[in-house]
Amino acid sequence: MSVASVEDPTASGAVWISNADPRDYVSLLKPRVMSLVVFTALTGLLIAPHGLNPVVGFIALLAIAVGAGASGALNMWYDADIDAKMSRTRGRAIPSGKILPGEALGFGLMLALFSVVTLGLATNWTAAALLAFTIFFYAVVYTMWLKRWTPQNIVIGGAAGALPPVVAYAAATGSVNLDSLALFAIIFIWTPPHFWALALVKSADYANAGVPMMPNVKGPDRTRLEILLYTLVLAPVGALPWLLGFASPAYGVISAVGGAAMAAAAVRVYRVRHGKGADRAAMRLFALSIFYLFALFGALSVERCLALFTT
Amino acid sequence: MSNDSKQPGSRPQGVTLTPEQARSRRSRNIAIGLAIGALVVILYVLAMVRMGPGSIPTTLR
Q1: Considering the entire predicted model, what is its pTM?
Q2: Does ipTM top 0.85?
Q3: Using a CB-CB distance cutoff of 8 angstroms, which residues of chain A are in contact with residue B31?
């Protein structure tokens, strides 16, 4: 197991007392990822045809967020050895020695259990089962299997990040339908160009840690081509909510403009292949992709809220 | 921090925490307490919302 290579101060039998404070445990939950999960799950709740009690909706969002946090803690437990080798992650709570791997494992499992049970009690067991599957998919299928095995890791593993709006929609309706799957598809297709743009810049870090990211395995040129292809597919997929009729033409315009901006940024990444300009182009696409996703889901949420308040 | 005394005849001294360890343990304890309290409140509110006013016996209304 990967975590075995991380130094355990209790292994020698010495007394070890933690200096970790609650912020270190919160950092295990990957708060930035949680904020994205909350945001996309909120959209999943809002597009549901019949509303959810606001209190129940809040608790459902909280449960989904904690479930995402549990996935993050389990990911950090298993990937502590990789995190210790990468400049971007070596300051995390486990590699820096603030929290023991076993503590992170227990913390993650406990939160996973509580989040799934709470969501089931608050809404329905279809949503709870989907949340449990999401946690399993991220912690086991992606973290333990795909991440160290194939350069398609974040393509397939992206399903875990794409599921929160589906879970939220199921929490409101008890089912999964085409509308919620459209939100899934947007995040799923968005994930590869988003992460590969970062991987192009951080490829040395990933190579040092032995993670088979696309730029290390297939090369940066192939990665640039795949980024461009995924981004070209993303543009029409981003318009699906409007095409399926559950978003307004205003959303259609926003998705078209956003899709065009993403495509232009991806073309630049494809063309500029050397020097600092190449890194700048990749980081620009990375930043734009975050803005793009927030714009799409934000537009959907805003127009749903406006519809709620005007009817 | 010091481990238990091993000298024959001496009573175990336990572990003495450094001020930093004591501070972080206290903050962790407070956080756990708040989390448990929040969970209790959430489950209570959830039960009230899920059961609704119809579930309260009329004699108690």
Answers
A1: 0.88
A2: no
A3: 22, 25
